[in-house]
Amino acid sequence: MIVPAPFIAAPFVADVCDDALWDRLAWSPDKHSGHVRIGFTTGAAPATGWPAVGDRCDVVYGPAEIENTHPAIVGADDPESAAHELADHVARNPQSATILAGVLRTGTEVSVRQALDVESWAYSTLLGGTEFAAWLARRGPRPLPPTSAAAPVLVDRDGTRLTITLNRPERRNAFGAALRDAMVAALDVAVLDDSLTEVHLRGAGPAFCAGGDLDEFGTTPDPVIAHFVRTAGGAGVRLAEIADRTTAFLHGACVGAGIELPGLAGRIVVDPRVAIRLPEVGMGLIPGAGGTVGIPRRIGRWRTFHLATSGTSIGAQTALAWGLADEVADVAPA
Questions:
Q1: How far apart are CA 316 and CA 330, in angstroms?
Q2: Backbone angles phi, psi at 291, to 5 degrees
Q3: Is pLDDT at 204 greater than 60 in this prediction?
Q4: How many domains does the chain have?
Q5: For an engineered disulfide with 299, which of 208, 243, 256, 322 has Cβ 3.0 to 4.6 Å away?
Q6: pLDDT of amino acid 9
Q7: Are residues 323 and 243 in the same domain?
Q8: End-to-end distance of the chain based on CA atoms, in angstroms?
């Protein structure tokens, strides 16, 4: 069978829908059209209600005063411009943005473990894509990061509390292989020892975690091995298992894995000066450390799509208002 070119191109489109389409869109049986659907509104609620529109959109921009009406809505000074700006981001990385939308639609309908697998399969698919290859070419070749004599993760037990501290302050705790493996080993202690009733996650130095170590991107032998590293060998599934005992204390830059992994914790405390960002779509990827699983369970798939596709940064008060943080308090670097 020969697949015509328009069929291949059609999914890589971002529909931008305004108020006039709400009711028709909400009643449409085509819940997910196969491509990104972005809405904007001046504030008028559809006759069918926001949930019906939310079911059929990947995000809706509206005036700030209606942001709390439904988690699909992201407040904006100019909702129409915000919608078209996001559509431009989709156009720059259509493969990763479209796959992200599909993963987010699916992820909240299955278990956390299943959602982590879905995320990882999609991430491995994109590792072989042209958008990630283009990002690697723009970045250029880099040497692997230098090794350090210091332990990449510090583990301290005090009675029934286990404190796990990311300890690569000179690299802003970039989530590289050594740090990941050490964190997994520490989390395994908590998984196996249920006498530990509290697990605290902290970061040494100026940032909790500035995301994946960019010097290591593209170094995994193949996408299949990468999938098993992220899942069976990853921190996400372990954090999910002990979520009810875990509190993450975040300060400074929390980028990529630096917010994705804490998003799986049961409680998140953020410093007033925290900066949260998901940059992966701009690299031709999607969040791959649990970001499409824990974050949408806190703030909804729509705001997660907005954060990841736009690459915008949010602060403590927005994180608190959306539910990505449970408390804003001074968090001293460990």
A1: 11
A2: -70, -25
A3: yes
A4: 2
A5: 322
A6: 33
A7: yes
A8: 59
Q: Domain ends where: 92, 121, 153?
A: 92
DSSP H or E run through 140: none
Buried b (16+ CB within 10 A) or exposed e, 136-156: beeeeeeeebeeeeeebbbbe
Range of the domain at 129: 112-328
Q: Are 306 and 280 in contact (CB under 8 A)?
A: no
81: tokens are 């411009």
Q: In one letter, which amino acid is 48?
A: T
Return the higher-pLDDT residue of 222 and 300.
300
Does 214 lie in the same domain as 116?
Answer: yes
Please give the torsion angle defined by the CA atoms of residues 174, 176, 181 and 183, in that order, rounded to the nearest 10 degrees: 10
What is the structure's pLDDT at 332? 86
* Parallel, antiparallel or unpaired: strands 275-277 and 313-314: antiparallel
For residues 27 and 65, state if they share a domain.
Answer: yes
In the block, tokens 């002990």 appear at: 242
Whose CA is closest to 230, among 80, 118, 82?
118
Cα–Cα distance measured from residue 197 to residue 268, given in angstroms and rounded to the nearest whole number: 16
Q: Are residues 158 and 274 in the same domain?
A: yes
Indicate the pTM of the whole model: 0.90
Distances (CA, A) of 164 to 98, 174, 182, 198: 35, 15, 10, 11
Q: Would the pLDDT of 18 be above 90?
A: no
The answer to whether residues 35 and 127 belong to one domain is: no
Q: What is the pLDDT of residue 40?
A: 86
- Reported as a single tens digit per residue, the pLDDT across 148-163 is 768 999 999 999 999 9
CB 109 within 8 A of CB 296: no
**27, 174: one domain:** no
pLDDT in tens, 308-322: 999 999 999 999 999
Q: Whose CA is closest to 324, among 296, 290, 301?
A: 296
